[in-house]
């Protein structure tokens, strides 16, 4: 069993912990919190030993009825791999601690590529992560871009990509963020950072990205335009999406044309937390014109990176060398019911 710790039990960390706990070859040795809150109660309810950064805060946790197993360093000593899901920038500060204790670490997309020197997507570069000490799973948007662009590149060769990201303003539980009534160009400059971020995984892809944020909490929407090296065939693309373990085809027969309806669908399908781990490509939007391919894809920001973290752990531990095998195990353990 691969022993896994989760440092930072928040939006991503709590999902990664549950996904890891569901795997047949992994176990959770502990999760960490900085303060007692609802998520700390959930961790206790799930039976995850809870560790804290500052042991002086132990009485505050215990006063709230939450048992503390110890300090973060004690958790790390028991782990083969730690998933650092702390807020962007904190992971880089934690890295020396992981180095000192000789524990492998998976960082998140809020960190710079340099924190690990290797940015990861299971379908694109799994082999490169095998045995590594540090890996960074790219952000939710970059993960969604990597999957689709890599699939099209393998089939037709990608000449150039233009992608517009309409991003959710905040996560559903985040009461302090906006915008409330605006479309914010974020950034106003073109290109956005997403293109260069994709190139940390797929350096040969020419890409221009545009980004804005809107007042919604569930999912990003990508407007994709990919120029290919040979003319694509619409039916073949639909076939590829259907066969892809991390892509979902939003069938025209569902009548779904929005993120809100997708969330309802995911809840009705019984997905835990209504999480959608795969790219959601709208069947009716799939269009080709000469060498050009277009589509809309929705990306569940809280979920798509979770399964990538699980595959990164397996690669780093050297437990499974074949990416497709790891992806299959991860999906199966989560009980993927295709959308
Ligand atoms: P979050 O704020 O929801 O959770 C972070 C957790 O880390 C919180 O529980 C916080 O208490 C804890 N924490 C803070 N400082 C800590 C420290 N020093 N030691 C231990 N724990 C600490 O953040 P999040 O949204 O889960 O983001 C985590 C990372 O994942 C970031 O790099 C982010 O960019 C990336 N990411 C987030 C999303 C998303 O949609 N939320 C999507 C993809 C990637």
Count of distinct strands? 16
CATH architectural type of the largest domain: 3-Layer(aba) Sandwich
Bound small molecules, deduplicated: nicotinamide-adenine-dinucleotide
How large, in whole angstroms, is the Cα Rg?
Answer: 20 Å
Strand order, largest beta sheet: 4-3-2-1-5-6-8-7
Question: What number is the mean pLDDT?
Answer: 97
Secondary structure class reads alpha/beta
Helix content: 25-40%
User: Distance between the terminal alpha carbons, to the nearest Å?
Assistant: 31 Å
Q: Unreliable runs, pLDDT <50, ≥5 residues?
A: none
The CATH topology of the largest domain: Rossmann fold
The CATH C-level name of the largest domain is Alpha Beta
Domain module tally: 2
- Assigned CATH superfamily of the largest domain: NAD(P)-binding Rossmann-like Domain
Largest sheet: 8 strands, parallel
By DSSP (H or I, 4+ residues per run), the number of helices equals: 12
- Morphology: globular
Question: What is the chain-wise order of helices and strands?
Answer: EHEHEHEHEHEEHEHEEHEEHEHEEEHH
Structure, described:
The chain folds into 2 domains: 2-138 and 304-333, Rossmann fold (3-Layer(aba) Sandwich), CATH 3.40.50; 140-299, 2-Layer Sandwich (Dihydrodipicolinate Reductase, domain 2). Helix content is 35%, strand content 24%. The chain has helices at residues 11-21, 38-46, 58-63, 72-77, 90-101, 122-129, 140-156, 194-199, 234-243, 259-268, 304-316, 323-334; strands at residues 2-7, 26-33, 50-52, 70-71, 81-84, 104-107, 119-120, 134-137, 158-168, 184-185, 207-214, 220-228, 247-250, 279-282, 287-289, 292-299. Strands 4-3-2-1-5-6-8-7 form an 8-stranded parallel beta sheet, sandwiched between helices. Helix 6 runs parallel beside helix 11. The chain starts with a strand and ends in a 5-residue tail after the last helix. The model has no long low-confidence stretch (mean pLDDT 97). Nicotinamide-adenine-dinucleotide is lined by residues 7-13, 32-34, 53, 85-88, 90, 108-111, 139-140, 171, 301-302, 305.
